[in-house]
User: Which sequence fits this backbone?
């Protein structure tokens, strides 16, 4: 039996296709669910994902690499002159299609 909460406030709709992807580990699936709970324009930083988790740095890093490998995340290194380098993450809820040139960050 499942006891569900009232969904009028603070909930996230997630496609079942990702939730049932048998090629995705539960760790990566959980991280992806957490990432999908943020606003669409959210800027992700691995350090912040680590702070918000009981898992360690290696575990979160491994989950990110798995999501990149499986096509759920595209990570691009951004090097702004005079600023720190950082990664830009593009998150996909399902992997129906590969990332394309249109998905690249604006230069």
Assistant:
């Amino acid at each position: 039996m499942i006891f569900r909460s009232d969904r009028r406030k603070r909930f996230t709709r997630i496609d079942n296709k990702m939730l049932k992807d048998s090629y995705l580990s539960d760790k990566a699936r959980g991280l992806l669910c957490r990432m999908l709970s943020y606003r669409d324009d959210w800027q992700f930083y691995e350090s912040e994902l680590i702070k918000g988790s009981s898992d360690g740095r290696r575990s979160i890093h491994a989950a990110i690499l798995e999501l990149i490998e499986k096509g759920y995340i595209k990570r691009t290194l951004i090097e702004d002159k005079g600023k720190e380098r950082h990664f830009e993450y593009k998150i996909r809820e399902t992997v129906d299609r590969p990332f394309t040139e249109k998905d690249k960050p604006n230069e």
